[in-house]
From TrEMBL:
InterPro entries: 4Fe4S_Fe-S-bd, 4Fe4S_Fe_S_CS, PSI_iron-sulfur_center, YfhL-like. It comes from the Bacteria. This is YfhL family 4Fe-4S dicluster ferredoxin. GO terms for cellular component: cytoplasm.
Amino acid sequence: MALIINEECINCDVCEPECPNAAISQGADIYIIDPDLCTECVGHHGVPQCMEVCPVDCIDKDAKHVESQEDLYQKYLKLIG
């Protein structure tokens, strides 16, 4: 399942550089996560790094992009290939 940044985002800029897949970018009002690039850090780290560094806990699982751990790993393999 990809992640999503909710409206509580304070644009603190700490999540973007932590993403190993460059899935996070500045949106019109808050940061956004590209679900095609988000692997929840599978293949890179044990836990999503953006969630680890977010000071306001505004990053959630994206119910519109449900993926298994295997799906996320396969996406990771395609991204690094």
